[in-house]
Amino acid sequence: MRHLLTFQLIEAVARAGSIRRAAEDMNLTASALTRRIIRFEEDFGAAIFERVPGGVRLNPAGELLLHHYRVMQSDLSRVQGQVADLSGVRRGHVSIACSQALLPYFLPQQIAEYRAEHPGVSFAVNVRDRTEAEQELASYSSDLALVFEPLYLVDFEVIQIVPQPVCAILQAGHPLAQKKEIRLRDCLEWPHIAPTAEYGVRYLLDNAARRNLRKLTPVVETESFELIRHYVRHENVIGFQIPIGLRDQAGDGLVFRKISDKDLQPGNLILGQKRGRTLPVASARFAVQIATALEGFAYPE
What we know:
Layout (H helix, E strand, L loop, with lengths): L4 H12 L2 H7 L4 H15 L4 E4 L2 E4 L1 H28 L3 E8 L7 H12 L2 E8 L2 H9 L5 E5 L7 E9 L2 E5 L12 H6 L3 E3 L4 H12 L8 E3 L2 H10 L4 E3 L12 E5 L8 E8 L6 H14 L7
Parallel strand pairs: 3-4, 3-5, 8-9
Antiparallel strand pairs: 1-2, 5-12, 6-12, 7-10, 7-11
Helix pairs in contact: 1-2, 2-3
């Protein structure tokens, strides 16, 4: 829509941190973009950018303005969805910030099921750690967040909670794979690969290890749970993940075993949205579908 173009340009400059780079992204000349922003600032009555080494950034007035634009975008998407309902046409866009554990199996299946019924709906899946996911909700960059052990829960409205224990990922022939109950101390006696500190799985592991006067000393640390799964195949180490991100497959060569509750209580996988926000229709309906599907992923005792 034409009247939203100026806001889109402002957002592009804020994202790029440079008028020149933003102009290239938006297929404009830098001078044309500069003139447009200057005219807007004159009409708005205040400057919205400040110069910094290497470019520009939003000043406090600009931050407020961009927040207003994102709220307006959200409201417009909601109204568009409601209008689509009136005509019987399901359209819209769903953005979700999620933990990596949801990528291999859970989210692809859920998105495909939703689009089978509503093919006019598009999706943006933003892979974020537990802190970043909450920031995505606060800035209206994502409609929903599905993360393991969110950190702050500030302005976070919980839709669904599913307990998820931390599991050990092992080669099928590993000695610990034969045990009915795996203790954390046994895992830490073996070489292990672990996620970095910003992830909920690592947070729970570190806390449990400290309580038992132990410490994680991974041979590999990584931000990628995909790397953890694949690395276990190449070296007889122990990896860690939550069950929703794992699947037993014949011939896969890997098994996963729950770490004993005596050492490590399950954490929480939480689906949420920004508190007080009215979601666009497509996002609200997808949230209902996700919440229902998550009920089947509570790990059995």
